[in-house]
Amino acid sequence: MKRMSAGLISAICALFCTLPMSGQTGAKDGEWRTYGGDLGNTHYSPLDQVNAANFSKLQVAWRFKTDNLGPRPEFNFEGTPLMANGVIYSTAGTRRAVVALDAATGELLWVHGEHEGARGTAAPRQLSGRGLAYWTDGREERILYVTPGYRLVALDAKTGNPVPTFGNSGLVDLKLEDDQEMDLVTGEVGLHAAPVVANDVVIVGAAHRPGGVVKSKTNVKGFVRGFDVRTGKRLWIFHTIPRSTEFGYDTWEKDSASYTGNTGVWGQISVDEQLGMAFIPVELPTGDYYGGHRPGNGLFGETVLAVDLKTGQRKWHYQLVHHGIWDMDIPCAPMLVDITVNGRTVKAVAQPTKQAFLYVFDRITGQPIWPFEERAVEQSTVPGEKTSPTQPFPTKPPAYDLQGFSIDDLIDFSPELKAEALKAVSKYKLGPVFTPAVVSKPEGPYATLALATAGGGTNWAGGSYDPETHIAYIPSQRSLTSIGLIPGDPSRTDMTFMSGSAERKTGSGGGSGAEGAGPGLTVQGLPLVKPPYGSISAIDLNKGEILWQIANGDTPDNIRDNPALKGLNIPRTGRPGVFGVLVTKTLVICGERSAGKSAVMLRAYDKATGKEVGAVPMPAGQTGTPMTYTLKGKQYIVVAISGAGFPAELIAFKLADEDAKT
Fold first, then answer.
1. Of residues 330, 578, 286, the one with CA closest to residue 455
2. Given pLDDT bands bounded at 50, 70 and 90, which one contains residue 13?
3. Residue 391 is inside which H or E element, if any?
4. Whose CB among 1, 33, 334, 447 lies 3.0–4.6 Å from 482's, allowing a Cys bridge?
5. From the CB of residue 19, how many other CB atoms can be counted at a distance below 10 Å?
6. CA dist., res. 4 & res. 314, Å (int)
7. Sign (positive/negative) of CA torsion 229, 156, 43, 456?
8. Confidence of residue 591 (pLDDT cuts 50, 70, 90)
9. How far apart are CA 647 and CA 662, in angstroms?
10. pLDDT band at 656 (very low <50, low <70, confident <90, very high)
């Protein structure tokens, strides 16, 4: 649901149509200075020393272990490090320290950490987070990051010392000047994402405690703010839940905007410095699966929002999900892409989503590149719930992974397994994308089963884009979610309904609430849904067409070695889990999650065809998105790895001298 006057659109076009195309050229000068490689989050680098002919010859250049950066080791390292002027910068460890490393050797140069006490212990978003930001004016260099306790810290990039002229001795308390009152220790707001810095403005979003059961319908609101990178002064705030005098307030019925929370920005934010615009992916309001306390479409929930970089004023918006009740959020960065459509060069923005739609807009005006159709969808039968009669469907590109859930999506390795799968889902509600949740009953339905909702499709790692070929590379996973609602437990929440399963309460073992399909939703230990479980889709953004799709990663041990599949020829299934991809001159590079005792690989695919052209083993699975840089004539590829029983570390690969010359 977008709002922009025709006159304003004409004025903007008149202003910008004559500007040269800035393009998102990826990481520049062999470095990697921002989370996504560039401010458009393309995760692209034009480097090509590592290519199809030599990728499998990569060797470990260095490893940096994070075990002691906190009171206990971390086992889920989701960060992407930066490299500037020969130095690697990264958050790391369970206390979210910041480290500076020699980019050639991995040697620790300095470390900074904040001991936040009870505030850190109560933080809704803990561990090392996803990264940090780098800023320089050519003389001074700064590192900026957000602590678990929700404080913005500015460090001298050369020493790791807090910048005394920034905020209060280097820190800005993000629980203050947020246009709402909250407890400074227990106020439920934080951030995993890296802040973004552009034109001397630091933009910081907000995240809340994950999960299907929220304590209160009056949760903390997730506003987004811009700060002066030199002083830490707040420059602007955007109320993602509008106030009574602000645009969008009328989309909240019964004064629900006054008390509803969440609607934060927990994914990465993108910026077009030339246009002076920031592109912000907003999550849904409180709560994830029941919206009866917040009637109306609820702007700016699940909305792509474009604002003025310097003032935070809204330029345009488009709501991707009206009155969301599927935990679809918008979990990742909008990719800024310059594409050619019908012979015309267009500055565009492409938004991957959990629902496996890639929404593509003109980034100046917010107009869809290809039409979106408001289509009728099934309405909720949950008491007190009022869902939107329609939802927007892009006409191009097509969905890049399965959506909703139907019997055609069930495992079909053999007729016997298909029959068992049919029996397993017989008391669940199935349907297309946007099929609503149900009140769970012991006699059925237990819940709504859905792909491409909470944990499916594309999550926080987002997509990648090749500015030379105008092809986007979108990772996704098939994660079956069981969305059931039960009456709210007053000891846990003040909401009328919360996530849960009556089947689980009766002990029949099939449901698992909204956190994912549990042990009862398998067939002889196999997933109910057919593979691939993790995949990469190459999408031509000039035409809105899918060029190729591949399974990423080998078949997990629990599937390959399952007795029910003995004697069957099972194609490579790919591995589930959130993963990000790096694109270079010729390759798409990504790792796979750990899945049993088999080797975990960092893989390279020919970006034109999707054919695997090389792989090297890793000691643990990829949990952060890879990045690359050059130093003294050598190309390095660095990725965060971790997993159950394997503490987090950064691992860097490079070629031997003789292989780098080929």
1. 578
2. very low
3. strand 390-394
4. 447
5. 11
6. 10
7. negative
8. very high
9. 35
10. very high
